[in-house]
Amino acid sequence: MEIHESVPSPSRIGLDLIAIERGADLTLDLRLESVSEGVLVTGTVYGPTRGECTRCLGPVSGEVEIGLTELFAYPDSATESTTEEDEVGHVVDHTVDIEQAIVDAVGLALPFAPLCSEDCPGLCPDCGVALATADPGHHHDKIDPRWAKLTSMLGDSNGGDDPEQGGGRL
C-alpha cells in the first residue's frame, strides 16, 4: 500500500531551537509492505521548520526531509518475541503508529545549532545589537580594566584633553 498525503503535525517535533510546529503540514510519501515478520514502512516525510538562529537570535525557517525505514512486528511473531518492547514498533489492531519514528528521525536531521545564514556575524558582545544590521564601523571604546581606576582619578574636570590639566584620556 502506498500513502501520499499531507497531515497536520500532532505535536511540536524537533529540538529546542528549531522544530516542526504543532499543526504544520507534514507531507507523507510512504510505502507499507507486508513482510514475514510484520509491516515494513519506507518512504519520506517533509515538513516546514521554524526556529531561532543561535548567533543572532533571528528567525530561521526552512524544510526538513527525512527518510523512514521502520519494521512494525506482527503480534506473536518471532521478531516481537525476540526484541525488547521499545526496540521495534508493533502492529496493533491492524494499524501502525509512525509518530515516534518521525520524531526520532526529525531530531537527528535538524541542526543542533541553526543559523539564519552560514556567515551570520551574531550579536555585538557589548550592546547586543545584531551585527548584520549594525553600522559598518560598529565598535565600542573599551578601557583596559587594569587602567580603569586611573580614569576616575584623572577625570575630565575642565572638559579638555590636556593631561597636565588633569583631563587626559587613557
Structural notes for this entry:
The chain has helices at 78-82, 99-109, 148-154; strands at residues 2-8, 13-14, 18-20, 25-35, 38-52, 59-73, 89-90. The protein has 170 residues and is α+β, with helices and mostly antiparallel strands. The chain has a domain at 2-109. Strands 1, 2, 3, 4, 5, 6 and 7 form a 7-stranded mixed beta sheet that branches.
**Strand coverage percent:** 25-35%
Approximately how much helix is present in the residues?
10-25%
Query: Biggest sheet: strands, sense, closure?
Result: 7 strands, mixed
- What would you call the shape? elongated
Number of helices: 3
In angstroms, what separates the terminal alpha carbons? Answer: 77 Å
Summary tags:
170 residues, alpha+beta, 7 strands, 14% helix, 32% strand, elongated, disordered C terminus
SSE blueprint:
Elements: E1 2-8, E2 13-14, E3 18-20, E4 25-35, E5 38-52, E6 59-73, H1 78-82, E7 89-90, H2 99-109, H3 148-154
Parallel strand pairs: 6-7
Antiparallel strand pairs: 1-4, 2-3, 3-5, 4-5, 5-6
